[in-house]
Amino acid sequence: MSEPALLRVAVPNKGALAEAARDMLIAAGYRQRTDPKELTLIDMDHEVEFYYLRPRDIAVYVGRGDLDVGITGRDMLLDSRASAVEVMALGFGGSKFRFAAPSGSGIDEDSLEGKRIATSYAGLLQGYLDDRGINAEIVSLDGAVESAIRLGVAEIVADVVDTGTTLRKAGLELFGDPICFSEAVLIQRADHEESASIDGLKTRLNSVMVAQNYFMMDYNVSQADLDATIALAPGVDGPTVSSLARDGWLAVRALVPRKGAHRLMDRMYDAGARGILLTELAACRL
Length: 286
Ligand SMILES: Nc1ncnc2c1ncn2[C@@H]1O[C@H](COP(=O)(O)OP(=O)(O)OP(=O)(O)O)[C@@H](O)[C@H]1O
Ligand SMILES: O=P(O)(O)OC[C@H]1O[C@H](OP(=O)(O)OP(=O)(O)O)[C@H](O)[C@@H]1O
Ligand SMILES: [Mg+2]
Known about the structure:
286 residues, alpha/beta, D-Maltodextrin-Binding Protein, domain 2, Alpha-Beta Plaits, binds adenosine-5'-triphosphate
């Protein structure tokens, strides 16, 4: 009997996305490497082979068709100019790609013409400049771009910003609108065909994201207050209502949005709910 064709999936091997990508794949039921030095891992149950690669290279492999699907940052996908497309945003690794200059320099987005701009995302920056007809010199660096100004290499930097701590430490301040709002994304080759195995992966990842957006709420309530509490927490397809071994009381279970769940708990209590529990979900397919 021939071996099944394995789905080839690229996963960041280190950096800002690696740990969250691994956690998400494990939550979706896949095996992941236990030794960070392993380069690949086969999950035979799901007929998937994972390749642990630099996030910057993942769009190249997927764009060429050497790998079927990959997880990388949207900014890295756009920077690569590879023939790959975003098929699903994964809800982690959020960052912005932004301009910064020394505090008080007076440089703004209207004064980019003729400047030297240091970045490790030359493709992404060039696309921004070309779209606006701006001529500026791009100084391409590998990382730690924030130091480029102090060292005289450039007057402006364009870099990934999350908390802004790195920029502040370098005495820089942001200017202009973000060039790109990034997060981790699932990518496929631009001319990909329909694939049941990739659909399976997307469904599983989606179920993890849905689970991250909801809590399961359990509570007890008297028959008299049931309608009021259901109106506050109607669930997705209506709550499950079971009898409780206490006369005139019911046990109720409903999915509730994670956002505002604690405020909802207060309102449920005021409406008569007691013994209210919020529980994390591991995965959830609605
Ligand atoms: N501090 C951060 N917070 C959130 N996302 C980030 C942060 N730094 C980078 N990212 C995002 O993670 C992705 C991969 O960047 P990362 O910094 O891990 O790659 P790298 O610079 O090639 O690797 P390394 O920094 O390990 O040399 C990019 O999409 C980037 O926007
Ligand atoms: O706004 P912050 O929360 O400070 O995060 C942004 C910093 O994080 C990344 O650096 P990384 O550690 O990946 O180093 P690198 O510049 O060498 O890639 C990014 O390049 C910024 O320098
Ligand atoms: Mg980095």
